[in-house]
Amino acid sequence: MEKRIEEYDVAVIGGGAAGMTAALYAGRARLKTILIEKSLIGGLATYTSEIENYPGFPEGIDGTELMKLMDKQFRKFGVKVKLTDVKSVEDKQSYKIVSTFRTDYHVKAVVIATGGRPRLTGAKNEEQFCDKGISFCATCDAARYTGKRVMVIGSGDAAIEEGMFLTKFATEVLVSVIHDEGVMDANEVAREKALKNEKMKFLWNTAVDSFEGDELLKTVVLKNLKTGELMPVDVDGCFLFIGYLPNTGIFKDLITLDNRGYIITNEDMETNVPGIFAAGDVRHKTLRQVSTSVGDGAVAGYMAERYVDEINTLKNGILREGTVLCYFYNASEANDRNCLTLVEDYAKKNQDKLALEVIDVYKSDKLQKMLGAPDVPSVMVFRNGEKIFSSPFTDSVFSEIDKSL
């Protein structure tokens, strides 16, 4: 089957908080932008019953409702949304190819915001009972356990907060924690609330050894990490909240990942491949929250905009047909500004021979590095895309340019 080809300025892969924010920034910058999400716009945040630490909502807000607001906002700027799975991403230097089953999207910049998926315990029979008693979403499945006994595995923010939500439905919520008594990975506010919740019972120094049952889960066998004793616990359901694995499998041969599979970026959300950015939970960082994902997405979207602008300047300005004089300078430096006046006068006198492109490295030095320009202030001359002259700015630079023309 021959694939359809569509061209965009920016492709955002992933429709969670980070992806939607990146798309918002790119769309608002009037870049032709597409957001590709394989399943659910809003991502994992839609499964959170209450978000209390997102600025601007002093009473807290339901995760689904917050994601709906973000969804509505980014679509306002003309971003196209495609619900499909990305199969691969290729770097062609001057453009990237984002491949889906039916379409290859040729884009100038890519923002990867694919998030993660729930981590499993690795205990015996685990996969047998996924969706048959083992769940990863209290918001989705809590109601079915009304009046029943459930177990939560984990002690991080998600585990404790979702465990407290489960107490609104279940008669008892058992929490398996690998740490000593009183020690959790959750924030202090959530920890204190959980310990005061009469419906929550903590099983300290325990980990799952196996899941048992027939067609449905009936028993979680815990192992005491200090004594090795096995403790069967009868439950009606079990919720796993022990972290996530990044969705980066298709990128492992494209960009640099850390030893856990998270994407390594700098503070500008840039990966090691120019034009490919990463944002949100998929990125190597300390804190993974909706607020940090939004921050990442804002930076990634803004940097994608700058990158596209640089690519357009390169393609349609510097490397176009004819002769182009490029002046690289730092606008914050008085000497560089004075030299700019001289360059502009020279270009005006020779406008029948060449065009002028002025590159301010104070905003970004990427084009300077990409073209191998000398330290500023400096000039380069290109003819039909080929470099014919390069020099720091000197008193004799114009006469030297004349010789090269």
What gap, in angstroms, lies between the N and C termini?
A: 50 Å
The value of Rg in angstroms is: 28 Å
Poorly predicted sequence stretches spanning 5 or more consecutive residues: none
Q: What fraction strand?
A: 25-35%
Query: Tell me about the biggest sheet?
Result: 7 strands, mixed
Average pLDDT number: 94
| Number of helices, where a helix is a run of at least 4 consecutive DSSP H or I residues | 9
Shape: elongated
Overview of this protein structure:
It comes from Candidatus Ornithospirochaeta stercoripullorum. Belongs to the class-II pyridine nucleotide-disulfide oxidoreductase family. The protein is of the alpha/beta class. The chain is built from 9 helices and 21 strands. The strands form 5 sheets. Strands 1, 2, 3, 4, 5, 6 and 17 form a 7-stranded mixed beta sheet that branches. The two termini are 50 Å apart.
